[in-house]
């Protein structure tokens, strides 16, 4: 979406008369991208659906606080990321396990998940990803599954391209080592 | 033990010279063998997806007569509270305990107040919530809630 179109959408979202229609437009444009960002973090479809609902509700309620310091999508991405991390924290608290143990727990559930249609290699790949540190996991998934350009990722994560390349390189090696040894 | 036997005595098969000395497990190249995530979604999920916005509380404009009534009612409530305070003061005070706070109040706080903070989303790689006017962090609240309340929260 071009910057001018984005500004127009934000103006309509903040206007009493056009907010509902503009919001429906926003949901239509961004639902899939946000869904997949959340899904890669949570792995489970039902959890993703719940969190996506909350993300859009927060966007709707807080759009007037968006100051335009970044692109609209970067702002929404941060909301989605924070919501997903909060969800994971609550889940680990309930299960009384650490974040690392929760990652293993989630990925082990994939084998019986009706919305996971991966083969053995894809399952092993998910297990490998779950062992990565949080930042490397995020960068790896954005690059590997979503094929996001480093330039766009740098804007989204507010991190330099060289740091992202380094993150991806280390993550890839760890994933490959995991696949080699399992 | 180094072996130079690259020809089998019995079968006659042979392998390249130094094959076993140079043998190593080849790295699984994830870029060459690109994989998709394996995740799927229900049929027509994105076509049918819609956001259910909760109904917002309506603001009611009060006229002068209603304002006077509201002020009088507030004063009456204040006097009542003071009187109740005086009565309770004569009784031994109970120690404050976090678990005695109504859990629905905490849930409402989490749901409708906390996320509305202006500086909720911070430009930092580490994930944390910043509170401009409250002393309690979300994590502190979660740490002080019992499991059943958290289960209810996570199911919202």
Automatic annotation (TrEMBL), chain A:
Keywords: Sigma factor, Transcription, Transcription regulation
Key word Repeat present: no
Source superkingdom: Bacteria
Domain called RNA polymerase sigma factor 70 region 4 type: residue spans: 123-174
GO molecular function: DNA binding; sigma factor activity
Pfam families reported in the protein's UniProt record: Sigma70_r2, Sigma70_r4_2
Database matches in InterPro entries: RNA_pol_sigma-70-like, RNA_pol_sigma-70_dom, RNA_pol_sigma70_r2, RNA_pol_sigma70_r4_t2, RNA_pol_sigma_r2, RNA_pol_sigma_r3/r4-like, WH-like_DNA-bd_sf
Any single GO BP term: DNA-templated transcription initiation
Domain spans labelled RNA polymerase sigma-70 region: 26-93
Gene3D superfamilies in the record: 1.10.1740.10, Winged helix-like DNA-binding domain superfamily/Winged helix DNA-binding domain
TM ranges: none
Keyword Transcription regulation: yes
Stated family: Belongs to the sigma-70 factor family. ECF subfamily.
Protein name as catalogued: RNA polymerase sigma factor
UniProtKB/TrEMBL annotation, chain B:
Bilayer-crossing regions: 69-88
Key words, A-Z: Membrane, Transmembrane, Transmembrane helix
Source organism: Mesohalobacter halotolerans
Official protein name in the record: Uncharacterized protein
């Amino acid at each position: 979406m071009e910057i001018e179109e984005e500004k127009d959408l934000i103006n309509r979202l903040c206007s009493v008369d056009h907010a509902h229609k503009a919001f429906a437009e926003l949901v239509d444009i961004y639902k899939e991208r946000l869904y997949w960002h959340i899904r890669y973090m949570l792995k489970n479809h039902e959890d993703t659906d719940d969190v996506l609902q909350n993300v859009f509700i927060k966007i709707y309620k807080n759009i007037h606080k968006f100051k335009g310091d970044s692109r609209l999508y970067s702002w929404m991405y941060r909301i989605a990321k924070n919501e997903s991390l909060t969800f994971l924290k609550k889940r680990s608290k309930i299960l009384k396990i650490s974040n690392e143990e929760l990652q293993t727990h989630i990925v082990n559930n994939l084998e019986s998940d009706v919305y996971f249609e991966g083969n053995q290699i894809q399952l092993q790949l998910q297990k490998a990803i779950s062992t990565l540190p949080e930042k490397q996991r995020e960068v790896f998934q954005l690059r590997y599954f979503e094929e996001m350009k480093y330039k766009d990722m740098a804007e989204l994560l507010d991190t330099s391209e060289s740091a992202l390349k380094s993150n991806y390189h280390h993550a890839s090696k760890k994933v490959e080592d995991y696949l080699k040894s399992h | 033990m180094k072996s130079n036997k690259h020809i089998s005595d019995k079968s006659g098969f042979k392998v390249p010279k130094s094959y076993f000395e140079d043998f190593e497990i080849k790295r699984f190249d994830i870029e060459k063998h690109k994989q998709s995530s394996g995740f799927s979604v229900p049929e027509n999920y994105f076509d049918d997806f819609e956001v259910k916005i909760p109904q917002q509380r309506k603001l009611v404009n009060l006229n002068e007569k209603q304002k006077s009534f509201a002020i009088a009612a507030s004063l009456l409530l204040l006097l009542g509270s003071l009187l109740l305070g005086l009565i309770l003061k004569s009784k031994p005070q109970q120690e404050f305990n976090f678990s005695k706070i109504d859990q629905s109040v905490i849930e409402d706080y989490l749901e409708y107040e906390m996320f509305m903070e202006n500086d909720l989303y911070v430009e930092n790689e580490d994930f944390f919530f910043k509170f401009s006017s409250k002393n309690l962090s979300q994590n502190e609240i979660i740490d002080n809630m019992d499991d059943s309340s958290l289960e209810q929260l996570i199911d919202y």
